[in-house]
Amino acid sequence: MKDYESKNGVMMFAGMPVTDIADRFGTPVYVTDEQRLRENYRNLYNAFSQYIDTKIHYACKANTSLAILSVLAQEGSGIDAVSIGEVMTALKAGIPPEDIMYTGVNVSDAEMKAVTDQGVMINVDSVSQLERLAKINKKIPISFRITPEVGSGHSDKVVTGKKGSKFGIPKADVIKTYVRAKKLGFDIKGIHADIGSGGQTVQPFLDAMDVLTDTVNELKELGIDLEFIDMGGGIGVPYKMNEDEMDLNELAAGVTDIILENTDIKKLIIEPGRYIICDSTVLLTRCVDVKDADTKKYIGVDAGFNTLIRPAMYDSYHYVAIGNKFGKAATAKYEVVGPICESGDYLAHDRALPDPSEGDVVVVYNAGAYGFSMSSNYNSRPLCREVLI
Ligand code: PLP
Fold this sequence. Notes:
This protein has 11 helices and 19 strands. By secondary structure, the chain is of the alpha/beta class.
């Protein structure tokens, strides 16, 4: 991860001083750099599409802002949706139904009906769901999410692909579930697996792809030919200064090599959320209170875990800087904490920062993924603004 530029001691974001953005829109505020968003999309698309016909389904759970979805729609992105709300938001942003895939878990009949009424393909997660879908809509194309028994992620809480996971068709049941779907008369298009979110190494993606391609070939022998493999999301990004990015070309070459060498599959779907949106966005929050509590020094800001829950929920690390004292020497280590009435409410622990004062603009880096979309009204606080530059 690289740092931002400074002008007259103020951090610049998307060509604007962060202090101007904070003054104009108030704080807390999530600010997204449209250019960076487009670059991330293109980097990923180009890395994979040089090898295979690739469709990106942006995992909009990472950030469902209409402005962001509209930019991605212009880039040609499809959508990975996990709820009827996400489906309707994607449609509103101009994504056509055939470019949306619904991958729900523990899905009610009412939600399946609403999704299929929109003409959106269902990625079936369980045998129960398949049998219920057969009574609701047999004309909708389907694929299956399988449990690959391969997991990775930035926290145990976001690993999805392990044996015993609540997600996907258990490995032992996969073949018979496809056979059952064929017997029911479904138009079966593909196969999907997701290993988890925020993995930083390539190997687990390759291990999961081995499972997917073996399954594709077993199905072919039974007369079930699939059109696509969907490798899910999960491509991690660096959150720490000077930490390296995953080598996208190594990932793309490795994954597509397994597909092209071993199967007749000609189309790959990928479902990145974090990779596309994460580093395009910062959270600006204002210092409202400064406290020296003997054993700890606190910078009290106006964003808490109601605004950004990742540190409190997963112990996630977000780099922070004081935007109006950018490049100034650190004077001490501080806890950056919010206004929520819980001691677990923090944005950053033990950070070397310059002397803080009330009114400073604290910048939380890499806040685009699972930031605003996981924010809440806890303590009866309103949701904050999102701004696209
Ligand atoms: N696809 C599926 C099925 C997921 O469960 C997730 C995240 O949990 C994603 C895509 C997106 O993951 P990420 O934001 O890490 O790319």
